[in-house]
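can u do me a favor
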């Protein structure tokens, strides 16, 4: 059973207040997703000011994503128990405070600590926004539209983060990339208590604290290994890291099956549509991040764009994203089978990869078009399977369900960069001449760094990188085409139940 304060109309449809509350929720969601990429252009200024070591610089960049990924399941489950609005407001306060500390950090250690707290705050905000959205929008059609907006904002935030970083660093100072978080968090803290309903499980049971370290030990080593493999290769250290994480994942699963009050209720996966949704969401993130790994390097290192120019050009494929989720939702509401829509989304995304396979060393518009097509297909998929997952999961497990989907996205993105990045790197090294300097045979960046000493090296390296990108794109297209078939098979008979069918909400004072 779920305790909640509901403001929906007597017909069960959300009114103006719920849509206003959704707008308030979208602000922190946008900023949390932006913080994944907001340091892209700020790192050089931070390095000059704080003088971090090489290891510290890596932690400044990566600690946010690591902590976020490691705590998503914990925070989703905690929200189910203590209330998603309550957890959201606690997270907003933590996120705002950490943003202020990061903006005025006077040492690398202080900035790393602040970024870690930002990750904790982000882990509370992401599942809480989705769980509250589920509570506010009980009408399936309205919920689908709201989740479509949620998916679009998440995708747009990642693209906007790097651009905003470049603009702010250009005209202000590096700390300003963190200060932009403060107004949105302040607005959420002021309006949230008045607009947002509380939603929590009425009889949650004891929180399983042992599952917290187990979940982190399962997630963090795997994410770390997958993030390092694209740049460092399949080093034994990273393979061991992934293996250790998988062993802890097995222990975590065993704990969930045997604990009296597990963090993640295994019954979630008995819902016919939930497990396929998690898997398909992972594959969708695989495609998005795998593609981004190549297109960002292509714009900067092959076409020789500046970092800010590359970020601005990379925004162009985001333009059609805004229409993708609403169109997909409208089709489902008009009676088109959801499995068909998701299958079409994967097919469109696969076509984006197929376009990328035809790119040459001067194919900017083709690369941007492929990114746009892939993004449209991916957002169609993400919006529909997120709605499916949240619609098939019991209301009282909305936070846990959301956190599992988001953790899957983190894994999928890291896996996409690792697998497709490794394919591209292997093909790049195969095409580079044996006479090229060692550093040039490793990466395109290494080749460009010494290109002034070796005539013709830059041209050869750019061609080799493009060939590697083509090979990775073919692999990506095949995988997403396979996902289209998987979606058609696993989702064809899945039906949604409404939240009321899972649990009748009980109104309590806000």
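np, heres the sequence
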């Amino acid at each position: 059973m779920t305790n909640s304060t509901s403001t929906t109309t007597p017909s069960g449809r959300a009114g103006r207040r719920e849509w206003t509350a959704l707008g308030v929720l979208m602000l922190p969601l946008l900023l949390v997703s932006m913080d994944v990429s907001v340091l892209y252009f700020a790192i050089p200024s931070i390095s000059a000011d704080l003088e971090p070591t090489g290891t510290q610089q890596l932690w400044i960049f990566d600690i946010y994503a690591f902590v976020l990924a490691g705590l998503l399941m914990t925070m989703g489950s905690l929200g189910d128990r203590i209330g998603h609005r309550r957890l959201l407001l606690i997270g907003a306060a933590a996120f705002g405070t950490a943003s202020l500390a990061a903006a005025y950090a006077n040492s690398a250690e202080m900035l790393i600590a602040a970024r870690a707290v930002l990750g904790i705050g982000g882990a509370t905000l992401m599942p809480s926004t989705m769980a509250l959205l589920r509570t506010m929008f009980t009408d399936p059609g309205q919920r689908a539209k709201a989740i479509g907006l949620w998916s679009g904002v998440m995708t747009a935030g990642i693209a906007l983060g790097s651009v905003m970083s470049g603009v702010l660093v250009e005209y202000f100072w590096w700390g300003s990339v963190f200060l932009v978080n403060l107004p949105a968090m302040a607005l959420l803290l002021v309006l949230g208590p008045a607009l947002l309903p509380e939603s929590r499980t009425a009889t949650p049971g004891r929180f399983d604290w042992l599952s917290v370290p187990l979940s982190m030990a399962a997630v963090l080593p795997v994410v770390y290994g997958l993030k390092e493999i694209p740049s460092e290769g399949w080093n034994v250290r990273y393979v061991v890291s992934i293996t250790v994480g998988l062993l802890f994942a097995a222990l975590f699963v065993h704990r969930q099956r045997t604990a009296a009050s597990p963090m993640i209720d295994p019954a979630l996966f008995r819902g016919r549509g939930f497990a396929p949704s998690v898997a398909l969401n992972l594959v969708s993130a695989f495609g998005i991040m795998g593609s981004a790994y190549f297109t960002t390097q292509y714009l900067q290192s092959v076409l020789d764009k500046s970092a800010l120019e590359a970020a601005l050009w990379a925004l162009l494929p985001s333009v059609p994203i805004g229409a993708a989720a609403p169109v997909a939702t409208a089709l489902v509401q008009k009676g088109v089978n959801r499995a068909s829509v998701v299958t079409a989304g994967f097919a469109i995304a696969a076509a984006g990869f197929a376009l990328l396979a035809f790119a040459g060393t001067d194919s900017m518009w083709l690369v941007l078009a492929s990114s746009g097509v892939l993004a449209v297909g991916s957002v169609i998929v993400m919006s529909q399977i997120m709605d499916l997952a949240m619609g098939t999961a019991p209301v009282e497990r909305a936070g846990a369900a959301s956190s599992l989907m988001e953790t899957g996205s983190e894994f999928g993105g890291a896996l996409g960069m690792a697998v497709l990045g490794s394919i591209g790197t292997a093909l790049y090294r195969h095409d580079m001449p044996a006479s090229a300097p060692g550093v040039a045979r490793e990466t395109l960046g290494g080749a460009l760094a010494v290109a002034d000493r070796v005539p013709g090296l830059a041209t050869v390296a750019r061609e080799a990188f493009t060939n590697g990108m083509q090979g990775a794109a073919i692999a990506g297209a095949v995988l997403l085409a396979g996902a289209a078939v998987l979606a058609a098979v696993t989702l064809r008979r899945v039906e949604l139940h409404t939240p009321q069918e899972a649990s009748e909400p009980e109104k309590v004072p806000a």
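The first strand starts at residue 2 and ends at 4. hope that helps!!
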